[in-house]
Amino acid sequence: MSEEQIPVVVGSPEREIHVTPLVTLEKVKICPLEEDEVEHFKIRCKLYRFHMDDEEGATWKERGVGELKIMKHNTKEAYRIIMRRDKTLKICANHSMSASMVISPHNNSENALVWNTPSDFTDGEHKPETLCIRFRKPENTILFKTKFEECVESLRRAQSNSSDSIVNGISTLKVNGEKDENDDVKNADKDVNNVDNQIKILSLNEETNKSDHEK
Q: What is the pLDDT of residues 121-156, one digit of tens each?
């Protein structure tokens, strides 16, 4: 059998198949919304949100599995929690941390923690959420809780320092105000004295002119 008579099987190495794409897609740059932040902590977990419904009642609904990150702002004392689902990278948690936040074990579990946030922005609008995070190992639960509380304590210290600065600023303004008020009184007294002196000078000049006229 000659080479010309060798049958060609579709998909075999002897035949090259070229498929022209119907649509050409351009690369799109995805903005991670983390340009002004630096990664402070990262851990893999499963996330739930507390849901209240008239039909189902109170339930925990899974939001996703992936890496949760605590981001720290580059120029100011601010922290943010953000989590994306595996593969799709869709955001399932996105909220700022505050000095009043408290994290605690869920039903005394060694693998789950729960906290409240007044303003989660996962669905494109700010709304309060109760979130629960679950780990495979208790060591990761302790690690995340420790990092979470360290960030909250750092925010408390920054808030306290800011309050002290405001109080000191108000005290300084009060002292300056009293000083300015006294200065105004002194200046007013000087103006009165100047007027009195001018009246006396005018009176003396009139008397002198009168005496000269009588002579």
A: 998 899 999 999 999 999 999 999 999 999 999 999
